[in-house]
Structure formats: C-alpha cells, structure tokens
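Posting for a labmate who doesn't have an account.
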Amino acid sequence: MKVAGIVLAAGRSTRMGRNKLLLRFEGESLVRRAARTALQAGLDPVLVVVGHEAEQVGAELAGLPCVAVPNGRHDLGMNTSLDAGVGAVPADADAAVVVLADMPLVTADMLRTLVARHQATGAALVASRYGAAVAPPALYGRAVFHELGGGRGDGRGRELLRRRQEEVAWVDWPAAALADVDEPGDLPRALPRDAERP
C-alpha cells in the first residue's frame, strides 16, 4: 500500500513577521526537517506545497527526493494548499498523511504509526490527539480526498475530522508533544521539550 506525504509549507507567517519555515531547529530549517521526517517515515511521494517565498523554501529542500508543489493561491488560506497537495497525490497512492511544516516535534515514528493504524483498521481517517487537542499530522484515505478540495480559508481537514468523528481512528500522543511555531517565542520554547517527544 502506497501512502503519500503532503507537507504544507506555503503560508506567509504573518504572526512571526518573517518566513518561519526558514527558521532553524536543531541545525536545519523547519521546512527541510518536515520533509526529511516524512521521507524517513517511508511516505512516497513526499509533496511539499510551496507558495510564499517559494524559491527560498524550495532551496531548503535541495538534495531531498521530494516534490515541490506550487500553490499560487496561498494568500487565500491553508485550504488552498491542502487542495494543491491532494491534487498532486498520484493515482496509485491509497492515502496521504498531511503534515504542517511548522510542527518540529512531529517524528517519523508518529507518521509511521498513523500509516500502521490505517493499515490495521482500514479507516479512511486517522488523526492525532494531544490530550484534548486534535492537531496534525492526520491521514486521509483516497475515499475522502474529494472532501478536502476547493474553498478558501483554513480548517477543512479539521472540519472533516469533526464531521466524521465516529469514523476516525485516533492515535493519542502526550499533550507536551504538541508544539507549533507561529510567533517569535514559540521556537525557543519547543527546544527544551525535545526529550518529551513520543
């Protein structure tokens, strides 16, 4: 069974004040770390959706066997990036794992666990819970791809999980493992918690 990876890396990082995906965490940029993690998990292909400062973000992927997918509509919200990523998934892939490039504590083991749960249960939706919080990464089977396409704004994947929550196979992680980088203070706060990853 083939499972693709979709790394969402097209946003403008407005709260950060600069492109957060180019910030470094443990010696590499956030976008390169996310793509490398997806590759290490065995996702194939790994599709990195780029938009804002696409050239600089794409340069961070040099040498990695992943595919940059342009999203010319990234200013209209994350849903457009999800749409672009899902649209680029090859026909022979059974599912795709969606990863946000600004979540540096996500590991290859976490992604492999989502895929294993999909294989074991056949669930078209496999999602992560961090205590009471639902957040990426999440796996979406081909049967629900049509529900992820189109539209503007943010939250289409989360909305789908909420709407079909009885069908979701959940994977639970420690609440401390949930860390994303949105504002200048977020990255330093993530570093001391490095040992608390699942």
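Reply:
Got it, the structure tokens are right above this. The two ends are 25 Å apart (CA to CA).
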